Amino acid sequence: MLHLLNMKPAFSLLTLLLLATVSCTSSKTIQYENVPIQRAQIELTEEQLLDVGILIFDPNLPEEDQEFIFPEIRKAEARYIPYHLKTTLEDTGFWGGVWVLPEKSEAMDLIVWGRIEVSNGLKVAVRIGVWDITGREWMNKVYETTVSRSAYSQQRDYSQDPYQSFYNKIANDLLKIRNSLSSPELRRISEIGDLRFAAELVPGVYSDYLMQDEKDIFSAKRLPSENDEMMGRIQNVKEREFVLVDTLNEYYAKLYQDISVPYENWRKLSREEMLTYEDLKRSALKRQLLGAAAILGAIAYEGNSQTSSYAKQAALYGGIEVIKSGFGMSAEAKVHKESLKELGTSFDTQAKPLIIEIEGQTLRLTGTAKEKFLEWRKLLKQIYTEETGFNISENSDPQG
Question: The whole model's pTM is what?
Fold first, then answer.
């Protein structure tokens, strides 16, 4: 009876450990979602359409190595995800031109920015920020989705990306905000956009047409006349910028197509690895907790007989072996992590940058695409100067 009383605290602790084991290792229900996209039922007029520029995403690479973050994958995703979002927005029929950009452009009515927070094949989470050309913020939130196994089934719709619900949520939210604006408000965004592009090109003339409030929101003091010749020339330059971004998007389209197959394969395998890794972690934890409980139970057993001594020793050895088994499974989980890393490295070899020619200039669109884009915009200003004879660096009236 005395031995049983001495064991009560240990049994209580053992019970707590077993309860913890059950709660920690119970299978987690993964919530999957299927978000349909909203499409225009009728063709919209030009005044109802806004042009959208989607910036290359921030890959959000940590300074030090972290679990399941592979620079090769993230850099490719920073180009792949924006382009697929572009095709999704185009598919809705609610927007004007939609382009992927290496740098912000005043030629766009709407700018979309993104930063990859999580991407491991099983789950993707991206912070999305959207602002219109007046400076008004449309959204700044994290979008995420968990990918179901059926997303990779042989019977699935191959025209749909496994992450399509993620893209559809963004498109639907953008449409909701757009639909909350009246026709005059949509027209005002385009007018401010024209003025901001003109003010960047010819600041000495068109800066005075704009004003900013304390929240840095742009509004128009006045609008150019309908027969403003200089504004007509600026619109021609703006059209050339659209030609540039069209060319840039030919590059991004080629890159998107080239990496689509290896990227989907990586996501599919990575999803399986992540599920296996999570299962192994839960299983290892369960084994370790049960082993610790067995050892505590053995220590608490105070039997004086030879039989009780053997039982205690057996329980100790049994508990130690269970813990060792648990650590072994953790080591197996580490092997799966290494497999993910190898997949990321092999993927990078299939996603090399391309070189394109624009107006006789060679652009290598990788990390330096932003610099090349800015150089090209300077060239647009030179073209304007040559065509008009107006020196854009001078704050004076045009020379005829």
Answer: 0.73
